[in-house]
Design a protein that fits this description.
Elements: H1 10-22, H2 29-35, E1 40-49, E2 55-66, E3 72-79, H3 84-100, E4 106-113, H4 121-135, E5 144-148, H5 154-168
Parallel strand pairs: 3-4, 3-5
Antiparallel strand pairs: 1-2, 2-4
């Protein structure tokens, strides 16, 4: 999915749905204005030393759409078609889902433009840790709690939690959900 004008803009489509819903609801215009823009958008470059010795740069995103109800909550996906537009739309939908279910979370989402099937396990670990190194100042148990999504799993979440804990010099299992059970994960997740 690219952000080219010839392709559907998934975030713009989500906002059209929002406008349509507000036609039937008595919502203050300032609330509508706030919901139309994410609170935080981060784009990062992640240098990755491949097993071959080659250096490649990957692009990653983290979007915190809203945290009015509580910390942002949403997955991290690894996919070659990840785009900023898609991540913004998914973060918006997480805001909506958490609000509809009356959960004490806002919406967030993240992703890296990568085909993880083309990476070795060590490359995948280095990429996962590199992403957290870039976004560590913007996530945390009280601000934004990532989780697994497309082509990410408990092992990747474990690496990410471990990297965040190293950066902060404190074991912080609450920073990420979907981790292995020995690292503070929940039974029944897999």
């Amino acid at each position: 999915m690219s952000d080219s004008p010839t392709e559907s803009n998934v975030f713009a489509d989500a906002l059209k749905n929002l406008d349509h819903a507000f036609d039937f609801a008595d919502i203050h215009s300032e609330a509508i204005t706030r919901l139309k823009q994410p609170k935080l958008v981060i784009e990062v470059s992640i240098p990755l030393r491949m097993d071959s010795g080659e250096l490649r740069i990957f692009t990653g995103y983290r979007v915190r759409h809203d945290d009015t109800r509580g910390p942002g909550k949403g997955g991290i996906r690894f996919h070659p078609d990840v785009s900023l537009d898609e991540v913004k739309a998914l973060a918006f939908w997480m805001t909506c889902k958490c609000a509809v279910m009356n959960l004490p979370f806002g919406g967030a989402k993240g992703g890296i433009i990568v085909n993880p099937k083309e990476l070795s396990p060590l490359e995948l670990e280095r990429l996962s840790r590199g992403f957290i190194q870039r976004i560590a100042d913007f996530i945390g148990p009280e601000t934004d709690v990532p989780a697994p999504d497309v082509y990410t799993n408990a092992m990747i979440m474990g690496w990410m939690m471990d990297e965040y804990s190293k950066i902060n010099r404190k074991f912080t299992p609450a920073v990420i959900t979907g981790k292995p059970i020995p690292l503070g994960g929940s039974e029944g997740r897999e």
